[in-house]
Write a structure and sequence with these properties.
Neuraminidase; four-stranded antiparallel sheet; about 45% strand; globular
Length: about 350
């Protein structure tokens, strides 16, 4: 009987592990504001700095945003002295591109320029004291809202949509009829080689999921799908793992909170774990070995930040959509989170 009770307790903990784990303390502070607040940007850690390139912002004012604009602006944030530096503009304005750093280059893949979906792959690197943008390749299809991760110095491109599907003429985002389940791989050390096609992720197609990678696997968390404007949005709770060596997908867990506002948008590797940063304030630490979660200190304010990074032993996130004032307002805040050990 005692063993039976212990078994039931273990099963309950496994089905909702976040309620059975100690919380993680994160000290959140506001740092130097982003010079040009935007969302939908490309980003990555290059030469010890957080690079933010491109993205979108709105014309108008809180409560009356009239049109979404796309930018080529590029900035670097230094986490040591907490300052921003303006870098050369990207080769063209864009938003919703995938991005990843491999070696000494930040790669920007696909996206949308306000008029057309794109296949271009461009890269930013530092040559001496000067940052330079160059064209380095092309995707096999138009792609935006895709997620890029790196395993063994190769870039894996996961899902995305092939079209920009705004809800209205102003550019409010977005339905996802053109979402794909594709997984592609490319070796940036041999840019002339073609993109390889790998097994697609299982289940329903989706976008706006979180993705991360470790040395052996690629992880996909949640996501959403909407066929047409005004129709219900489908939210997904599954956690999918792609084993790189086996080239196989499997569902390994579910998200810790079914609330759509608490779904993760960004996943970052911190040590052996993965931190899930949600649309609102929520933060979770996911153990890829046990599939258990631990809740962490929430952000002080509700903000939807595109990407967070583990940089100089701290979590850094900036820009995004600030819901404190009104929907669509771009946030200027740069958040720094220091984890208590």
């Amino acid at each position: 009987m005692q063993n039976y009770i212990l078994l039931i307790a273990w099963l309950l903990a496994a089905s909702n592990p976040a309620t059975f784990a100690e919380s993680i303390d994160i000290e959140w502070t506001k740092s130097t504001p982003m010079p040009e607040p935007r969302s939908g940007y490309a980003a990555g850690v290059l030469n010890g700095k957080l690079i933010v390139a491109g993205g979108t912002f709105w014309l108008g004012q809180p409560g009356n945003w009239t049109k979404k604009e796309f930018t080529a602006s590029t900035h670097a944030f230094d986490p040591v002295n907490e300052t921003w530096q303006q870098l050369p503009d990207a080769l063209y304005p864009f938003g919703y591109a995938a991005s990843e750093v491999v070696g000494d280059r930040l790669y920007v893949l696909g996206g949308y320029n306000g008029k057309h979906e794109m296949r271009k792959v461009i890269a930013l690197e530092k040559r001496g004291d000067v940052y330079t943008w160059t064209n380095v390749g092309q995707l096999p299809v138009n792609l935006l809202f895709s997620k890029a991760v790196t395993v063994d110095s190769k870039i894996y491109l996961l899902g995305g949509t092939t079209r920009f599907e705004p809800h209205n003429a102003a550019g409010g985002c977005c339905t996802s009829r053109s979402a794909t389940r594709d997984l592609m791989v490319w070796d940036p050390s041999q840019p002339s080689t073609s993109w390889g096609k790998l097994p697609p992720y299982p289940g329903h197609k989706r976008f706006l999921y979180a993705a991360a990678a470790d040395d052996q696997a690629i992880w996909l968390f949640g996501g959403r799908y909407q066929d047409k404007t005004g129709e219900p949005v489908n939210y997904f709770q599954d956690v999918l793992r792609y084993r790189v060596a086996d080239q196989s997908w499997e569902k390994v867990a579910v998200l810790p909170d079914a609330n759509p506002r608490a779904r993760p948008f960004t996943a970052i590797s911190v040590g052996n774990d993965i931190m899930l940063m949600c649309f609102a304030k929520h933060v979770w630490q996911f153990d890829p070995c046990t599939f258990n979660y631990r809740p962490a200190t929430e952000l002080p304010e509700e903000v939807a930040i595109d990407r967070y990074y583990w940089l100089d032993q701290r979590i850094v996130g900036t820009g995004g959509e600030n819901r404190v004032q009104s929907p669509r307002n771009r946030s200027e805040t740069t958040w720094i989170g220091r984890i208590s050990r």
